[in-house]
Design goal:
This protein is of the alpha/beta class and 361 residues long. The chain contains 13 helices and eleven strands.
Length: 361
Amino acid sequence: MEADIKHLLVFRFSAMGDVALTVPVIRNILDHNKNIKITLVSNPAFVHFFFGIERLTLFPADFKKKYIGLRGLYLLFKDLKSSDNFDYLIDLHNVIRSRILAVFFSLIGLKTYRINKGRKEKKAIVCGKHKEKLIHTTERYLQVFENILPVSPLPSAPSIRPVDNALINAELFIQKETIPENNQWIGIAPMAKHELKRWSIANIQALMNLISKDSEVYFFLFGGGENEKKALDKVSGETNNATNITGKLSLDTELALISKMSFMITMDSANMHIASLIGIPTVSIWGGTHPMTGFGALHQPEEYAIQIPEAELTCRPCTIYGKGTCKRGDLACLTRLTPEMVYDKLKKLSLLKEIKNSSNA
């Protein structure tokens, strides 16, 4: 069937982390199938993830302004239909919006292949019926393409690759902020959308203090939105070795800056996926969610995921995406994870460099 494939229409609208995880898959598909091209329909804010991928066209779909409601979906269908001819529709999202669009395309004879999100298996894990590791989300993406063409395992090489202009802008930002270049640069993305995935800011500050006590380091704080900016401004304002990046850079420049980090410390968040896809060592902190459900940091060692073992807290994981509330009422999965525990783990992983005083290490 491979010889017949010319143009694939791919849907993955949101969220940021899930869209980012399509990058290694799409890059891999195009690298191994020179006779095809892909049009990806996604949030226009995420286009920077895909720069430099040949035979890939980004079709921006703004569902808040242009493509609103059912009429908006029909308009999107017409715009896509008039943009080019497609051979297959690959639905990597599998939500009502993508299913409605697939119905429109089926009326003109376009066949759809849709992701199996493993909802039953994930529900069984949350309900405590099974505690078996599921396949990674990127593997689920690959399985959809496997219906129509040969697929190859994903290489461990970085798949999000900052462009030259962004790298130059990142260097200019570093110079403007007079950031010490001799220090070890550590990125920290301490925020997450849901409470069940958020370690406290107080813990982050304590961890930064522990690291700074023994190491020559400089911290870059990554967040998004005005509320996160205010919280991280407070953190950076209470230390002389941290800069809050939130709201200061375009996404492409932020990606370039991340590529310059020695390593990243993140929650289970989009920044975790982005850092790992850029190829930076990524230490992730987990609460109510769990890497076993298929959303761990790609190509990162298992020991880089720091968490209270599910054997110790049998309620873990209690959620797949972070939604919901703690059934115990005490967020034990996060409150039991102390800054000292995370700091000790960083030392055991040999990620911290330039120890000032070896007797303190």
